[in-house]
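Appendix B, record 7
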Amino acid sequence: MTDETIIYVLDTNILLHEPFAFLSFKEHDVVVPMTVLEELDSIKDRRKDVSRDARVAIRALEDVLANSTPEEVLAGVPLASNLGGQDQSPTGKLSIINDYSLEQKAETLSFNENDNRIINAAIHIQNHNEGRKVVLVTKDINMRLKAKGAGLAHVEDYRTDQLIDDVRFLTKGYHKFEGDFWAQIKECESETEGRNTTHYVKKSILPTIYMNEYLLDEGEHFAGKVAGWDDERVAIQDISRERLMSKNAWGIQPKNIYQGMAMDALLDPTIDLVVLTGPAGCGKTLLALASALEQVIERGLYDKVIVTRSTPEIAESIGFLPGTEEEKMAPWLAAITDSLEVLHKQDESMSGSMNYIMEKANIQFKSVNFMRGRSIQNAFVLLDECQNLTASQLKTIITRCGEGTKLVCSGNLAQIDSNYLTAVTSGLTYIVERFKEFPGSTTVNLNGVVRSRLASFAEENL
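Structure tokens (predicted):
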């Protein structure tokens, strides 16, 4: 007779990715090998961002196991009483296995590496729990392959923060109708107020709709944006392709309809969060910076521009090199200075213009390290390359934004440098899906490379 509850063996990177991950397995049992505790211990005192997560994970485990005897810890401690008093029954147990006491056998992997010890522990549990499914959970792809090769039947990635199975299903921020939009509409009521016209059409034309979702057809004129809906009707704000393509920010105009939609969202003061996705060279950074300068200098909507981005090195430390925070960040934020050069290449003195604009717009280069604990008021915040951030890191930054602040998150899911993130587990994917129904946000996938014909060919064929 098989037991339907599963035994999950956690790798260290799972607890670093989400320190409370061991509480996410509902009625199933969770095992933490001693090697994982050793690795958390070695990481917790480093002067790195990941050390905080290690300390949080250690404290969380201590809270669960504090009042248990050694025998209870080995057998498994019920997790129900540790979930904020909520009735979570039936719930699983948390236990620790001393993998250092396991015997080295001919068929087991060498004990020289920590990964091997954890795999051996999972195989040991599998061999002693016939009839129960034993799963090793790790974000390390190579470790998953090694575990399979060593004889472990089940290995998985940690997926509780994964909202979609394939990045192809990621919300693009717009819906394209085949043919002509108006040819498909049988009933329509319209209201005009000033320059703005709102159409009310039957909800059946859009089975799934999101606030601020753009609507396009294959014609040359129609473009709309979802402004609201009820059980029967959808309110569509008529913005027309011509109006989108005539948008202007700091001398920059859209080169295609996708850039037009992005610029519409970037220049809309009622939108607090704009998420720009798309391939390299589609104009994400340039449009965001041009819109920032337009709204800070020309319109006076914001007091400053804060620019930050994620790189593996910055996320850990910005080093001991001489210079201010801005000077240390400058090499990593060359994409911003490149875009500033494009915006001012026609000026008589480009470097003079850039220095003047950076001072006038109060452009500040900030490290992700120092975002925690801040409260950013009345600023235009540009977070570049955020495909390399986890969901929790993005949450840290988004929750820093106070009144009057607009946040622009941009990234290319085909260029992820993080060891443990994929396109579907990236924080960028997470916020696109989480915020698609939030009325104060817009997502636009900039489909099409406009940097150069060389970049366009490379994106399509390499």
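Remarks on this record: Residues 132 and 237 are 56 Å apart (CA to CA). The first helix runs from residue 12 to 17.
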